[in-house]
Design a protein that fits this description.
The protein is mostly helical. The chain has one domain. 70% of the residues lie in helices and 2% in strands. Strands 1-2 form a two-stranded antiparallel ribbon. It is globular, with a radius of gyration of 18 Å. The C terminus is likely disordered.
Length: 226
């Protein structure tokens, strides 16, 4: 699940921008290659905990495993190399899923508000270096401005985004020809992934509940680190 998906999941429990920002921080810091920050608001820490629980639950869902495996097979048969096919099956499925999640205007508004907090001078994060602070603020601000850009995007635009995302990793990078094949896959996969979105959300919430996340998004007190 990518950062918008994490924001959507966090919004099930708590709409405070600091909490939702925390649920996205591990993904955003990874995009920038930063070490984890400290936080000035316990809501951020709670959001980070939810992030890790959500990832563990999401990637264990049989339906998600099935969708990604099907995508990997389809991309490989179409002619996409093994490494890029695996990466697109993972990241591409998540980006298509975003389109369904973004139908919830409340989740989108909460996502943007959290990013705006991350871009603000008073963001409740403590980075290791001033440059880290500025880089994070710029990323958060740019994402807030863009909002959820994959919604309704042409398949070719989504494929081009995947090419950009994977380009820094040579073993996963897509050639121009492969990017065209990914665009064709997006057209075929969209209805299937979007059609499964509500079931994925329901199963994810059930798994999070089983892990101890309740109406406020926090674990039971006795399960938190001492």
């Amino acid at each position: 699940m990518n950062f918008f998906g994490h924001a959507s999941a966090a919004a099930w429990y708590d709409d405070r921008p600091a909490y939702v920002l925390g649920a996205m921080v591990p993904d955003l810091q990874g995009m920038l290659g930063l070490e984890p920050p400290g936080w000035l608001d316990p809501a951020v820490e709670a959001g980070v905990r939810l992030h890790h629980a959500t990832d563990a639950a999401f990637h264990g869902l049989p339906l998600v495993v099935e969708l990604m495996a099907a995508a990997r097979r389809e991309l490989t048969v179409a002619g996409v190399s093994r490494g890029p096919a695996r990466a697109v099956a993972h990241v591409g499925t998540e980006l298509v899923l975003d389109e369904a999640l973004a139908a919830d205007s409340r989740a989108v508004s909460i996502y943007v508000a959290a990013l705006r907090l991350g871009a603000a001078p008073h963001a409740p994060l403590r980075w290791r270096a001033p440059d880290d602070t500025e880089r994070f603020r710029k990323l958060a601000g740019a994402l807030a401005e863009r909002s959820v850009s994959t919604v309704g995007a042409p398949a070719a635009a989504l494929a081009a985004r995947l090419q950009r995302v994977l380009a820094p990793r040579p073993r996963l990078a897509l050639s121009d020809a492969e990017t065209g094949l990914v665009s064709e896959w997006v057209v075929a996969a969209r209805p299937r992934v979007v059609g499964c979105a509500s079931r994925i959300a329901s199963e994810l919430r059930s798994r999070l509940a089983a892990a101890g996340f309740g109406s406020n998004g926090c674990e039971p007190v006795d399960s938190r680190p001492g």
